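Consider the record:
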Amino acid sequence: MGSQHRVRTMLRLPIFSGNEKSQSTLLDIFKKWAGNFEIRATKDRMTYWVETPLQNDLGIIQYTSLHFDPLLHPRGEGIENAPGEEQFSSLLAFGLTCSNENLELPKKLHEYFLPQKLLVDIAETGLFGLSGSVWNSTPVEVGFDQVSQWWEETKLKSVNLPQVIIGKSKNSPLPVLDPRVLAKILSGVAEVYFASTPSVMEAMNNEVGADQIPSGSIRIIGASESNPSVVYTPKRIKEVEAKFGRSAPLDIFLRLSLNGLLKNDIPFDEWKMLSQPVPELAPHNIQSLDDFETIENLNYQIDFKESVIQELHHKIDSLETEYKNLENKLVQFEQNSEALSSRVQELTSQNQEIYLNNKQLKKELKIELKRTEELRPLLAEIISTHKLDSMDELMEYIRSGTLEPDEEVIETFEEYNPSTLTEVLQRTRAEYHDKIIVLDSAMKSARQSTFRPPTRVWEIILAFVEKYDHILQRSNQKKSVNLQELLRETTAASVLDISNKESKPTMDAFGDQRRFRHKKRNIEIQAHIKIGTQHDQSKTLRLYFCFDKETKKFIIGHCGKHLDTVSSN
């Protein structure tokens, strides 16, 4: 080995698999990655290991070992196997050593440890388990209807394997970091999640409670026993880069690698198989870890506490500023109280004047009504000429000829945060009446609904607008329109869960609930978008819609609670 310094363990991963060919597959991957390697064997153990110089001028060397050992066999002492992982187990370990006599360098030796492509190669096979979970190097995208189940599973899995949640910034719909890159960097040490849309991010924060992911931040669940929930705020990310000279992903990797040594304790010293001279090889358990590891964990905790304190100082400053503003407003209010009193008197006299004006306006209204009666024959002639069915269609015809917008403006999620479903449908009527008809029945169901967040429905409206031209073209060409297929494509609302029709028993029993009135027409609407499957109406919504070939517009008939079905009754 050429070094008189002992190897310091950086990362240790117990690997499990239920596939009989996993052992040979794992060995093939290791050989391809290692290139030149050595095999050390005893009666009880086979070890494959490779020596990799990292910094020749500093004397830093990485050792990687792959162990096949009876002590790691299922039902072996000190190892708890995940369900179904009963045929094969192994141990992969990484360590660093340094021959430089500089006493300061070993204290920072861990900073030279980098993410390993070997871990990504193993994960991409899909054959191996790690800490009770399937080992993978790809991020998991969380959908709107998956939030509740995702959080329950995340809390359970975080006991054995850290769970990393990538947040979004208020000013951007994109994740703070590229999920694919971070998942590869953290392969073997954590699982990575991100929200599919801004509304999903909002729902996730509502679900996680105290473990919320602030704007522009990254949250780690199960980081360590002493500090199980860690947040990397935008300020902390900048401080890590400035203080340690490394990126936030690398800092997270080093933190979780070191903390993983405590969770993945193994009842033997994996470096005893290395050739001499390697004196003073220490067993790796929680009592015998180097002081450096303990100090490093304490440093991380100190940094975190300092960031929390700084955030509290900012909040205090903000509250003090707000308090001063309120004091100023109170003084201003007191100064204006006398003026307000005189203003009340003035308004009283004005109210009397308004009353008299209203009487005059009523007289004028009667005159205008008489004039309108005189116009009725002309309006009737226009309706007949243009083959219009009603006064509503006449008004729509007039508006279409005189109020044609120059440019359609579609606001993004970040520019619009509706407070109710009713607000969303009212805005839809105002901005997209040329593409979407919102029936009064939809407005009524929206007013009765407690669903949150309404932003999700606004995203669905934008998806309708996005696909409108394509659907209209197919309709004009008398081609079939499969709403389920078209709207399940990636849109402004991400992937939508859509049913084209209801079952025959449901239509036989509750078909009346799916028949809606529009301009003397009865329209049966079976296609609907499904959000949630729970009894809690605040988390469940059904939006019934169709594309009407007569009006060449989307028609929304219902936007609210789950309608009756045979299965639900």
